[in-house]
Design brief:
single chain, 82 residues, mainly alpha, three-stranded antiparallel beta sheet
């Protein structure tokens, strides 16, 4: 799998989402970055978030973010020496 800049932007946007608050959506007005706005539009097209201007995670999006956060946690855990 190739990690192109667009995919990295989408992952970066998804990392900002808190899974603890179910009613909290993505507030793009506080971000203001055109690349992040474009990432949100792509995530909406993929069915990950509810609206192209941010919105909330869909059920599919929530599951994807849970997997992503679990992966990032595993990757950031220091390895024990062999």
């Amino acid at each position: 799998m190739h990690l192109d800049p667009e995919l990295i932007e989408e992952l970066s946007l998804l990392r900002r989402i808190s899974l603890n608050l179910t009613d909290e959506g993505i507030d793009l007005s506080s971000i203001g970055d055109p690349a992040m706005i474009a990432a949100a539009e792509r995530l909406c097209e993929k069915g990950i978030i509810s609206r192209p201007d941010g919105g909330q995670l869909t059920d599919r999006g929530r599951e994807a973010v849970e997997h992503m956060k679990r992966l990032f946690n595993e990757l950031s855990t220091p390895l024990e020496p062999i």
